[in-house]
Amino acid sequence: MSTEVRVPTLGESVTEATVATWFKKPGDNVSADEMLCELETDKVTVEVPAPAAGTLAEIVAGEGETVSVDALLATISEGAAAPAGKPDVAPAKSSGSAKKKSAPAGDSIDVMVPTLGESVTEATVSTWFKSPGDAVARDEMLCELETDKVSVEVPAPAGGTLGEILAQEGETVQAGGKLAVLTTGETPQDAEAPAPEKAQAAEAPSGKSVEHAPSAKKLMAEKGLSPDDVEGTGRDGRIMKEDVQRRLAEGAAKPAPAAAPAARPGPSSRAPVPAEDAGREERVKMTRLRQTIARRLKDAQNTAAMLTTYNEVDMSSVMTLRREYKDLFEKKHGVKLGFMSFFTKACCHALREVPEVNAEIDGTDIVYKNFVHMGIAVGTPTGLVVPVVRNADQMGFAEIEQRIAELGIRARDGKLSMNEMQGGTFTISNGGVYGSLMSSPILNPPQSGILGMHKIQDRPMVENGQIVIRPMMYLALSYDHRVVDGKGAVTFLVRVKEALEDPRRLLMDL
């Protein structure tokens, strides 16, 4: 009996992909959910797991071939691989963990790195909750992995004893890689058996010849780049198409090696530390999230022609309206009426009039978005994340407040999915909650605009020749001058100001 391996759903409006790499060859034993091959679409890479345990019988679509959704990739002959047990009826957890299997007592089960999310190929082991020899229950959390954006918990695939941990805290692991070995039942001594496999796994990356993605090789050839000019982010440093595109966006010439320490400071770039201070320092490795934040913010500065324009808004009308209706609003909708819904609606209103602020550059094209996916910057204990409120321009005040509240809780708990942080077209950052009076926000690539909110502070203002006290807020719009002209940026900010100072304009679409 054989099982077919087919092309999975590739994403909205994506109908075909290129077979980039096969990790197995005909005749190899495979376990259920073990990664067989990697497909590459225009935007992302997709890993294809084995639907069942057995032996890879035939590869139908070789590397470099283009395949459509649901096309046949390979076949697996069942029954030849190591016992894997029958799949449980219970579905896999939303964290992306592999399907759980039941196994006879005393059998060893590999604990694998789960699918990490679209285009995410590796993670760092941040915390082990169990030690070798500890008894674990089925679905009990064994460890936590950290990717560029989210944390992923790995549950135990079965009850038993944790044998050997193959990936220690701080190590980088690939999607589909092996984390540990679990021995079912009460025979912890069996857990030491896979030790030779660990040595083989450690040797595999160094001895493997990395095959770069076909579309990446084609694009490098067209642009006159060599693999040494491009930093690969795929498995084992494999260069993907998006890596080449990112390299081209950074400039035609790669920086000289001597300039690298200045671009990304490391321990070697520090000045000598006086002996009396050496014992009073603490060195902590940057988390993957913090490294990603640093890289993306620096890329934004290097790539975009970033400029900031400022204005101020009298918050009297919004505060009066909010004070008048907040109790009734919360009673009816079950959520508090905050300031973010007013700012979100005001920005959506302004983006319709100045669409270039809601656009992005793609090569030599400008892509205008006829929708608003609003990014809301959220500070968390581990760093800044930007969850996205999709189709915010079609939502009412209550829907916006409810969605922002949900995303805020998920962000603080580290439970945001990759999908919830992708696809934003414009961003709002509220530094006012921390007491900021004035700042220049940095763009969130590839977006062309970000609005910075600040603290509300009573200030003397002149109205009709009289000095009055008004609750004022400074607004800052950072924008990409390659797409947005100064007139458009100023107009956008003025429209936001007008909508907030007279919220009735939002209702009348003025």
Key terms:
11 helices; 4-stranded antiparallel β-sheet; OB fold (Dihydrolipoamide Acetyltransferase, E2P); alpha+beta; 510 residues; Chloramphenicol Acetyltransferase; 27 strands; 7-stranded mixed β-sheet; EC 2.3.1.61; acyltransferase; 2-oxoacid_dehydrogenase; Dihydrolipoyllysine-residue succinyltransferase component of 2-oxoglutarate dehydrogenase complex; globular
Explain what you see.
The longest helix is centred in the middle third of the chain and has 18 residues. Among the domains are: 84 residues, Beta Barrel (OB fold (Dihydrolipoamide Acetyltransferase, E2P)); 218 residues, Chloramphenicol Acetyltransferase, CATH 3.30.559.10. Helix 2 runs parallel beside helix 3. About 12% of the residues have low confidence. A hairpin with a 4-residue loop joins strand 12 and strand 13. Helix content is 25%, strand content 28%. By secondary structure, the protein is of the alpha+beta class. Strands 17, 20, 23, 24, 25, 26 and 27 form a 7-stranded mixed β-sheet that branches. The N and C termini lie far apart (67 Å).
Write the layout of secondary structure elements.
Elements: E1 2-6, E2 16-22, E3 29-30, E4 35-40, E5 45-49, E6 54-59, E7 66-68, E8 72-77, E9 108-112, E10 122-128, E11 135-136, E12 141-146, E13 151-155, E14 160-165, E15 172-174, E16 178-184, H1 195-207, H2 214-223, H3 241-250, H4 260-263, H5 275-278, H6 288-303, E17 306-314, H7 316-333, H8 340-353, E18 359-362, E19 365-368, E20 374-376, E21 378-380, E22 383-385, E23 388-389, H9 397-412, E24 426-430, E25 449-453, E26 457-463, E27 466-480, H10 486-501, H11 504-508
Parallel strand pairs: 20-24, 24-25
Antiparallel strand pairs: 1-8, 2-4, 2-7, 3-6, 4-5, 6-8, 9-16, 10-12, 10-15, 11-14, 12-13, 14-16, 17-27, 18-19, 20-23, 21-22, 25-27, 26-27
Helix pairs in contact: 2-3, 8-9, 8-10
Domain Lipoyl-binding: 2-77, 108-183
Organism: Rhodovulum iodosum
EC number: 2.3.1.61
